[in-house]
Amino acid sequence: MNLRPFHLRWLGGLSLLALMIAAGPDDIRHLGRVGDTLVVIDSRRAVFFDLDGRPLGDLWATRTLRDPVPRFERLLPAGRALFAQRIAPDTYVESVADLVASDDTGRLLLSGNWDIEDLEPLVFIPATEPPPEIRIEWGEQTMGWRSPYTFEPLYHIASNGLAIALVERDPPEAPDGDDALWRLVVIEPASADTVVDRSYTYTPEPVDHDVVVSALATGFASAFEAPVQEIETEIRSELVLPPAAPPIADVRVAESGEIWVQIWSTPGAAPVWEVLDSSGNPISRVTLPAGGEIVHIDADAVYFTERDGETLELVRYRIEREGR
After folding, report:
1. What is 20-48 written as a DSSP string?
2. Cis link prior to 5 (omega < 30° from 0)?
3. What is the Cα–Cα distance from 259 to 185, expressed in whole angstroms?
4. What is the pLDDT of residue 128?
5. Are 70 and 85 in contact, with CB atoms under 8 Å apart?
6. Looking at residue 63, what is its pLDDT?
7. What pLDDT was estimated at residue 66?
């Protein structure tokens, strides 16, 4: 599989979506279409537009399992929606006892009607300990850095709402070692069926403490206009890193059902994505430019944000498949 780039600036139907982003709600989580209605979802409501971009109204999430209100996440087929509910010991409910223990903390994904009736639990994503963070002060300036070396559960929902992919350590509490595994689970929200549940071996990559400290010290010293050695000494006294890096840095589900998992690499390096078919079988690897982010994958293209100076561009990479 090869990717051929060409630039575009909100062409075609995306021009309307850009207008909706500019005029619509904050914290946009999803843009979608149901028949002749365009839907913009933020954390607390769904806002509806006709195909010419005229507002038709909105729907607020007002019903709860427990406080806080479930968050809208995605449109689903047949007029349903996907929601996320924060779970903690003080918000525990017996109706999800088969997925969540009474002392668990994390996020529960549920499907239901727009009025948040008949919510059906789909999958629980446990919370992990916050990644290590350091804060360095120099004079009146302060800078912070949060470690990317934490293997947190990752999930992504296909833009068409047909699949949810979850990546986690297998088992979740296992340490890194010679027989380390990561696990992929794919769920169909419409049926609540688990269609993929596979584990993959990986060789943990040691974290070079000296390299990380040196890179951080150089960056902090440049920002502070301070001596590198003094900043490095302070960083060494505070920085705590795990012995090994996580195997997976990100996950995406394409509209076709393919699962793209980003192989962990040193921060700043060009990301390598392993492409799996809808059954979880590896089929290809692709490399994208460093510093960008995948925003959408359809059958023929990957939409990717890249920064050119002060401008954030949307780049479409056409997918060229063997035999096509």
Report:
1. HHHHS-SS--EEEEETTEEEEE-SSEEEE
2. no
3. 10
4. 75
5. yes
6. 46
7. 44
Q: How far apart are CA 179 and CA 177, in angstroms?
A: 5
Looking at the DSSP assignment, which residues form a beta bridge with residue 60? Answer: 45
Tokens of 49: 């537009």
| Contact residues for 185 (Cβ-Cβ < 8 A; gap 6+) | 123, 165, 166, 168, 194, 196, 197
Q: Alpha-carbon distance 47 to 14, whole Å?
A: 17
Amino acid at site 253? V
> Between 271 and 8, where is the model more confident?
271
Strands (DSSP E) contained in 202-324 are 205-206, 244-245, 248-253, 259-263, 272-276, 282-287, 293-297, 301-308, 311-320
Taking only the tens place, the pLDDT of each residue in 187-208 is 998 888 999 999 999 888 888 8
- The residue among 282, 277, 271, 250 whose CA lies nearest residue 317 is 271
pLDDT at 92: 54
Answer whether residue 106 shows pLDDT above 60. yes
What's the pLDDT at 177? 56
Task: Judge whether 259 and 276 are in contact, CB under 8 Å.
Answer: yes
Structure tokens at 7: 């630039």
Sheet containing 106-113, strands listed edge to edge, beginning at the edge strand earlier in sequence: 71-76, 80-87, 106-113, 120-126
Domain assignments of the chain as residue spans, ordered by start: 61-127, 129-287
Task: Say if pTM beats, i.e. exceeds, 0.85.
Answer: no
The b-or-e profile of 250-265 (16+ CB within 10 A means b, else e) is bbbbbebbbbbbbbbe
Q: Model confidence over 145-165: pLDDT tens digits? A: 888 787 788 999 888 788 999
Nearest to 156 by CA among 217, 96, 204, 109: 109
Q: Which residues share a beta bridge with 205?
A: 245
Reduce the DSSP state of residue 214 to 3 states and report it: helix
